[in-house]
Amino acid sequence: MDNTFTPIEARKPPSSAIGPIAWMKESLFSSPVNTLLTVFFGYLIIRFVPPVIDWAFISANWVGTTQDECTKSGACWIFIKQWFSQLLYGSYPENLHWRVNLALIGLVAVVVLQFFLPQHLRRRVGWVSLLVYPLVSLWLMYGGFGLETVSTDKWGGFSLNILLAFAGILMSLPIGIIWALGRQSKMPFVRVVCISSIELFRGVPLITILFMGSVMLPLFFPAGVQLDKLMRAFIAITLFQSAYMAEVIRGGLQAIPKGQVEAANSLGLGYWKTMRLIVLPQALKISIPNIVNTFIALFKDTTLVLIIGLFEVLSTIQAALQNSNWLGGHHIEGYVFVAFVFWVFCYTMSRISVHIENKLNTGHSRS
Amino acid sequence: MSITEKTSDNNSSTTETRTSNADSIIQIENLNKWYGAFHVLKDINLDVAKGERIVVCGPSGSGKSTLIRCINRLEEFQEGSLTVDGVALNEDIKNIEAVRREVGMVFQHFNLFPHLTILENLTLAPLWVRKIPKKEAEATAMEYLERVKIPDQALKFPGQLSGGQQQRVAIARSLCMNPKIMLFDEPTSALDPEMISEVLDVMVELAEEGMTMLCVTHEMGFAKKVADRVIFMDAGQIVEQNNPHEFFDNPQNERTQAFLSQIIGH
Ligand SMILES: Nc1ncnc2c1ncn2[C@@H]1O[C@H](COP(=O)(O)OP(=O)(O)OP(=O)(O)O)[C@@H](O)[C@H]1O
Ligand SMILES: [Mg+2]
């Protein structure tokens, strides 16, 4: 008998398993139920997609400045066009829009830098921008120190949603981390305080917190002191968001094996160093998808501040619809536009999150 | 080539069982520990001399891990006293951290930090605990990686290494803190057979250089080769202890005999 091992050469798969026909057979018509679903959804697509395309593009009105020029049967995008500046910047003075733009561009730049900088610079730049960016953007938005002041009641539109969301996430991350660590503390007092406050803010709808913020927060301040309306909204959002963040991070913390803490302790690292160097980097990493999720939820929730009278994008649309020059009923255009803008942003963020996950996964584990 | 900076400062009379306190580095007196109502460690008395190599064995659940984890205070105990290198382990976090700096520990499941490279795993504690300059810490780390024979893996992540390699990194990581005592909790029992010897070789070398070692292990070959004393535990007690020669050839207690016949019978 021949005992030498002869490897068999790898062969191509049989041709029936590849190619478009095989794919269709496999994924569209693999069973009677599947075939039925394919036909049903095919019908829905043919029935509804062409009219939508026709409304939004082919028969839509693009040129002009008043609603009377919307003569074609499709969407009246002139409405959006005329209100565009309001929808983006609210009542922020037109000649100062560049300041908002600069703040937003800075935001994009900070995020983009994190992807393209070499590894060793990334963390340092990340920390610096985390500290510097909020101050710079606040200065740009509010003014002072040589810039003309723009009071917060003029801020508005979609830029307000973006700023509220990013400011909220930025504040809620550190607070959420502290809260989550406190929740696991060995000291009963700290633990009880953290758990009950997390549960309090998590168990109440954001709208309620916003209302309470605008009604109750002033009670905690001495009479003459007027707390800015935007500030109140921001505090409410931060508390709400931090409570969610704490729960997300707790999930991450619990996923880190006890052996990691033991190894760090046995090397002489104390509690804070163990958390900062060993546990949190790993816990935050596995929490990224959930952090982005809560962020997307928060981003959409920023529209709720309209309830306490801030002119974010949705309330701007509503104001525009009430305007006597635009009473022709442009609700659909308005809401479709807002929905579209939010969708683009949220979808982009979820793609970024997937990208970060993939990036972080490479090289760290065998599997 | 020596694995530790310290030369064996007491290679005299390492084979006899010590009882004197003279140059002992760990003193355990009447140690008792409970998990809730469960009495895990019962009246443990143990003195470990500087440079002594002790192997702890015993059936599963007998409290071996718990005992050595008390020595660097990964577990707390309720009664008795435990002194390591002159520092009494009590509630004082200062004392606990002082002891942990001097005591290295190697775990069954390696417990390397998966988000750091091998080199970063090794330099982390020297940098943050000992406050050694980065250059110096890295040079020391590379030295130890060379001694455990994997300097070429320095920039990889733990997940990219085999089990045996990971365990050798874990040993090197502890050694980078220049500890006076090394604790091993079943360092080879999560390894495939062909990797066990590469880890044991490193441990033997370490023992030969005079490191004080406490090893929980079932590698009886290792025990015979390097141990000064073998301790047999059962049901939270130290049942019998002796030098390996006497322990294996002439066990006194029937529990020990039964245990030994079981593992040798395999
Ligand atoms: N955190 C804990 N809470 C409660 N009981 C525990 C805990 N850890 C260990 N025990 C119990 O204490 C006893 C001793 O455990 P220990 O891990 O020290 O045993 P061991 O001798 O190391 O066993 P093995 O060989 O399986 O590692 C066991 O009965 C175990 O079930
Ligand atoms: Mg054990």
UniProtKB/TrEMBL annotation, chain A:
Keywords: Amino-acid transport, Cell membrane, Membrane, Transmembrane, Transmembrane helix, Transport
SUPFAM superfamilies hit by this protein: MetI-like
Gene Ontology CC terms: ATP-binding cassette (ABC) transporter complex
Record's keyword annotation contains Cell membrane: yes
A biological process from GO: amino acid transport
Highest rank taxon of the organism: Bacteria
MF terms in GO: transmembrane transporter activity
Subcellular location: Cell inner membrane; Cell membrane
Transmembrane segments: 33-53, 96-117, 124-142, 162-182, 203-224, 303-320, 332-350
Membrane topology designation: Multi-pass membrane protein
Positions of the ABC transmembrane type-1 domain: 158-353
PANTHER family: INNER MEMBRANE AMINO-ACID ABC TRANSPORTER PERMEASE PROTEIN YHDY (PTHR30614:SF41), MEMBRANE COMPONENT OF AMINO ACID ABC TRANSPORTER (PTHR30614)
Family matches, as NCBIfam families: HEQRo_perm_3TM
Name of this chain's protein: Amino acid ABC transporter membrane protein 2 (PAAT family)
From TrEMBL, chain B:
Pfam families: ABC_tran
MF (Gene Ontology): ABC-type amino acid transporter activity; ATP binding; ATP hydrolysis activity
Listed GO CC annotations: plasma membrane
Gene3D superfamilies, per the entry: P-loop containing nucleotide triphosphate hydrolases (3.40.50.300)
The entry's keywords: Amino-acid transport, ATP-binding, Nucleotide-binding, Transport
Transmembrane segments annotated in the record for this chain: none
Keyword NAD applies: no
Domain ABC transporter: 26-260
Ranges for region Disordered: 1-20
Domain of life: Bacteria
Keyword flag Transport: yes
Family to which this protein belongs: Belongs to the ABC transporter superfamily.
The protein's name in its UniProt record: Amino acid ABC transporter ATP-binding protein (PAAT family)
Native species: Cocleimonas flava
